[in-house]
Design brief:
CATH superfamily of the largest domain: paralog of FGE (formylglycine-generating enzyme)
CATH topology of the largest domain: paralog of FGE (formylglycine-generating enzyme)
Structural class: alpha+beta
Distance between the termini: 37 Å
């Protein structure tokens, strides 16, 4: 449901088809109805507070402007959030009369590409805020009154969790828009904790063998994360931490962007066509590398995970380093499998929800933390920062799991399956914990650079280290 890349997936409302499909029910967890209501209320409230912050820190001109053809005007996201909530929770779950059926088409992400949305008859900022607030007030009444069992869409408060995730995913999209906008900084946040990768091994051996991938028990997991199934991967080595800006700079300075040996042909064509010579928002000036981050110009921090690179750039670096990108299955095994317990965890550190000590999530900070931060969030094998900081490109195409069934509608995932999209894992500093877990799958086109994406590299266990890194 995230609109975070540029393909506007996961945002089609219930009214787009004859009704939401309910062929695959989420599995009920072990929480009481009161617990589930509190969880849903907290998730919805947290998301709305963030939405208000992202749309309230700029004036109406910035809200209605299109800061990049890759992104919607912020005011479109705001009203779209309210419209999705109205369609799914007010109308479908609550059975209430539609408030604004005439705007459904305007805020249908599949009907209108981002580049044309400024031309639509959008709600003005004040009206969009009133609309979203009016919907939310009615939805809270529905949450209080709805039995959270007996219907697939509401079992374990799934629909409420789905909408909370949808709003947080649009919040991350709006944060990307803030990064793309020009002008003075309007967002502030404290610096992340300063960890260090010194003393950590450069790579970790992940033993071969079977493990459980995906989930059949996470109550708010989305359809593409399901069902749980067994996968077997051969032994491989994985970077202990994500590739840093300093490591990536070595690739740049070795002529990596000029050497077609490292690039997929279509990727090399892309960087040649657009004159790309470094990650997005980097520039070389006065003998040093600088980057623009939310309106602030600063030296590129060499110890942070590299950010704003496409899949093609990540793949080229891995080839230059004599390595490769991990597959999606390899990433998930490294992130979730507990060899001693013989099971897959919810998160690298265990089954508990993330805390500020585990991972850099939720826009708590406006940048990735240095490599080696969050040691409490490491996996059983000692792989660090698998959750938060930067989305990590994998080598895998976005494909369904065995036994996949679309729920609650095909346009959420199914229409995107195929070789056009690559899978990203792990979340970023801009994604909220409600929309990030060890099984969560993100996907995007391999050319995309504005998203908060980085990567780490892998190699087969039988291969010797090589390359330039």
């Amino acid at each position: 449901m995230t609109d975070r890349p540029t393909t506007d997936r996961r945002t089609t409302g219930a009214g787009r088809t004859a009704g939401p499909r309910t062929t695959a029910a989420p599995v009920t967890g072990h929480l009481t109805s009161d617990d589930l209501r509190r969880r849903a209320l907290d998730a919805l409230t947290t998301a709305r507070e963030r939405t208000a912050h992202l749309t309230g820190c700029v004036d109406d001109h910035d809200l209605t402007a299109q800061h990049s053809p890759l992104m919607s005007p912020l005011v479109w996201d705001l009203a779209h959030i309210g419209n999705q909530e109205e369609q799914w929770l007010l109308r479908t779950v609550g059975g209430r009369e539609a408030l604004r059926p005439e705007i459904d088409s305007v805020y249908d992400a599949f009907e209108h590409p981002r580049a044309v949305r400024p031309t639509l008859p959008l709600l003005a900022p004040a009206e969009a805020r009133r609309y979203a607030s009016d919907v939310r007030g009615r939805v809270l009444d529905i949450l209080a009154a709805t039995e959270l069992e007996g219907r697939p869409l509401v079992d374990s408060a799934f629909a409420f969790g789905m909408i909370a995730q949808h709003e947080q995913q649009h919040d991350e999209t709006m944060l990307i828009t803030h990064q793309l906008r020009t002008g003075p900084a309007v967002l502030t946040a404290p610096e992340p904790p300063r960890g260090s990768a010194a003393g950590l091994p450069p790579e970790v051996l992940v033993p071969g063998g079977p493990f459980t991938m995906g989930t059949s028990t996470e109550p708010w997991a989305l359809d593409n994360e399901r069902p749980a199934h067994r996968r077997t991967v051969p032994a491989f080595f994985l970077d202990t931490v994500p590739v840093t800006c300093g490591a990536y700079l070595a690739f740049i300075e070795d002529g990596g962007y000029r050497d077609p040996r490292w690039w997929a042909p279509e990727g090399f064509g892309q960087i040649r066509q657009h004159g790309i010579t470094a990650p997005l928002f980097w520039r070389h000036e006065g003998g040093q590398w600088l980057r623009r981050r939310f309106g602030v110009s600063e030296p590129v921090p060499l110890d942070e995970p590299v950010l704003h690179v496409s899949w093609y750039e990540a793949d080229a670096y891995a080839r230059w380093a004599g390595r490769r990108l991990p597959t999606e299955a390899e990433w998930e095994k490294a992130a979730r499998h507990d060899e001693d317990a013989g099971r897959s965890r919810r998160y690298p550190w265990g089954d508990d929800d993330p805390t500020p000590g585990h991972a850099n999530l939720g826009q708590r900070h406006l940048r990735p933390a240095p490599a080696g931060s969050y040691p409490r969030g490491a996996s059983p094998l000692g792989v660090h920062q698998l959750i938060g900081d930067v989305w990590e490109w994998t080598s895998s195409d976005f494909l369904p799991y065995p036994g996949f069934t679309a729920f609650p509608y095909r346009e959420y995932s199914e229409v995107f399956f195929g070789s056009a999209h690559k899978v990203l894992r792990g979340g970023s500093f801009g994604v909220d914990a409600v929309a990030c877990r060890g099984t969560f799958r993100n996907w995007d086109l391999p050319v995309r650079r504005q998203i908060f994406a980085g990567f780490r590299t892998a190699r087969d266990a039988g291969e010797a280290p090589g390359g330039h890194a």
